[in-house]
């Protein structure tokens, strides 16, 4: 599916996405996922993500679910936060010696629920004090 809502410079999916034997270079997104954005499971195999850019998170890829990465390379990707893969649940690597990721390229989406919990607790204390 083509990019939507300024997410996923090359591909966008509301379901799972599989990227295999692909090269994704020089894509960009105004928000999330410079090359790919998915709300479902993301599988990347034998692929290269190079020089992709997201203005917010996931310079190469963004998933609201889990990711599986095998024999893939991520280089030169950029974003405000997380250069390569931004994921919500978990990421699994197969054949890790063949995966090439630049430093600081993975980030799990977990700080917003924690922040929401902290604000809720603070409001509860303020109301009940």
Q: What's the total count of β strands?
A: 16
Low-confidence stretches: 110-120
Major β-sheet profile? 5 strands, parallel
* Gross morphology: globular
Residues in helix, %: 10-25%
Task: Assign the structural class, choosing from mainly alpha, mainly beta, alpha/beta, alpha+beta, or little secondary structure.
Answer: mainly beta
Summed over residues and divided by their number, the pLDDT gives a mean of 79
Radius of gyration, CA atoms, in whole angstroms = 16 Å
- Oligomeric state of the chains in view: single chain
> Any idea how many domains?
1
- Percentage beta strand: 35-45%
In DSSP terms (H or I, runs of 4 or more residues), the helix count works out at 1
- For the largest beta sheet, what order do the strands appear in spatially? 1-5-9-13-16
Order of helices and strands: EEEEEEEEEEEEEEEEH
CA(first)-CA(last) distance: 51 Å
Short characterization:
The protein is mostly beta strands and 129 residues long. It has one helix and 16 strands.
Describe the structure in your own words.
The protein is mainly beta. It has one domain (11-128). It is 14% helix and 41% strand. It has one helix at 111-128, and strands spanning 11-13, 17-20, 23-25, 28-29, 36-38, 42-45, 48-50, 53-57, 61-63, 67-70, 73-75, 78-81, 85-87, 91-94, 100-101, 106-108. The longest helix has 18 residues, at 111-128. The chain is globular, with a radius of gyration of 16 Å. Mean pLDDT is 79; it is low at 110-120.
List the helices and strands and how they pair.
Layout: E1 11-13, E2 17-20, E3 23-25, E4 28-29, E5 36-38, E6 42-45, E7 48-50, E8 53-57, E9 61-63, E10 67-70, E11 73-75, E12 78-81, E13 85-87, E14 91-94, E15 100-101, E16 106-108, H1 111-128
Parallel strand pairs: 1-5, 2-6, 3-7, 4-8, 5-9, 6-10, 7-11, 8-12, 9-13, 10-14, 11-15, 13-16
């Amino acid at each position: 599916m083509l990019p939507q809502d300024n997410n996923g410079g090359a591909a966008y999916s509301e379901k799972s996405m599989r990227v295999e034997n692909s090269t994704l270079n020089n894509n960009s997104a105004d928000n999330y996922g410079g090359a790919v954005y998915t709300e479902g499971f993301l599988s990347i195999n034998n692929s290269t993500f190079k020089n992709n850019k997201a203005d917010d998170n996931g310079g190469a890829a963004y998933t609201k679910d889990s990711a599986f990465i095998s024999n893939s390379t991520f280089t030169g990707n950029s974003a405000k936060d997380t250069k390569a893969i931004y994921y919500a649940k978990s990421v699994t690597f197969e054949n890790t010696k063949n995966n090439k990721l630049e430093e600081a390229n993975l980030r799990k989406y977990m700080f917003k629920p924690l922040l929401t919990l902290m604000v809720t607790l603070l409001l509860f204390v303020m109301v009940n004090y």
